[in-house]
């Protein structure tokens, strides 16, 4: 494993925080700019969404509130990065819950683009 550069690590921390904000606010434009063309998302129900389907999903308002992330870990492998994190949120019935996510980022033409995501919920 390559030692992470502080520039790449900082960029990925910023992208991760923006990803969470964009998901919470249904910011499709952010995802259009930051997802790879062949992006795939593994959904909590076990289905797989391509880029277009994911953009349609994210366009719908988030069904939970107080959505936040913690325990973020970023690992760099050359031009690829894996980001792990824990999400916390309040369900519509008021119950607190948590989940995990893993995002795969690839450095393409000098910029980081998200190639894949995997989401689990509690």
Topology:
Layout: H1 6-25, H2 28-34, E1 35-42, E2 48-50, H3 51-59, E3 65-77, E4 80-90, E5 96-108, E6 111-121
Parallel strand pairs: 1-6
Antiparallel strand pairs: 1-2, 3-4, 4-5, 5-6
Which characteristics define this entry?
122 residues; alpha+beta; Nuclear Transport Factor 2, Chain: A; 6-stranded mixed beta sheet; 3 helices; 6 strands
Q: How would you name the oligomeric state of the polypeptide chains in this document?
A: single chain
CA(first)-CA(last) distance:
31 Å
Main sheet summary: 6 strands, mixed
Task: Report the mean per-residue pLDDT as an integer.
Answer: 94
Amount of helix: 25-40%
Low-pLDDT runs:
none
How many domain modules?
A: 1
Q: Which structural category fits the helices and strands?
A: alpha+beta
Count the helices. How many? 3
Order of helices and strands: HHEEHEEEE
CATH-derived architecture: Roll
Assign an overall shape.
Answer: globular
| Beta-strand segment tally | 6
What does this structure look like?
By secondary structure, the protein is an alpha+beta fold. The protein has one domain: Nuclear Transport Factor 2, Chain: A. The protein is built from three helices and six strands. The chain has a six-stranded mixed sheet with strand order 2-1-6-5-4-3. 19% of the residues are buried.
């Amino acid at each position: 494993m390559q030692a992470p550069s502080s520039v790449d690590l900082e960029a990925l921390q910023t992208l991760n925080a923006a990803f969470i904000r964009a998901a919470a606010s249904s910011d499709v434009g952010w995802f259009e700019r930051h997802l790879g063309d062949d992006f795939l998302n593994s959904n909590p129900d076990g289905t797989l969404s391509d880029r277009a389907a994911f953009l349609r999903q994210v366009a719908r308002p988030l069904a939970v509130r107080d959505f936040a992330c913690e325990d973020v870990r970023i690992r760099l492998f050359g031009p690829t990065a894996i980001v792990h994190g824990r999400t916390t949120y309040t369900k519509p019935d008021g119950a607190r819950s948590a989940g995990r996510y893993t995002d795969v980022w690839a450095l393409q033409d000098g910029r980081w683009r998200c190639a894949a995501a995997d989401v689990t919920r509690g």
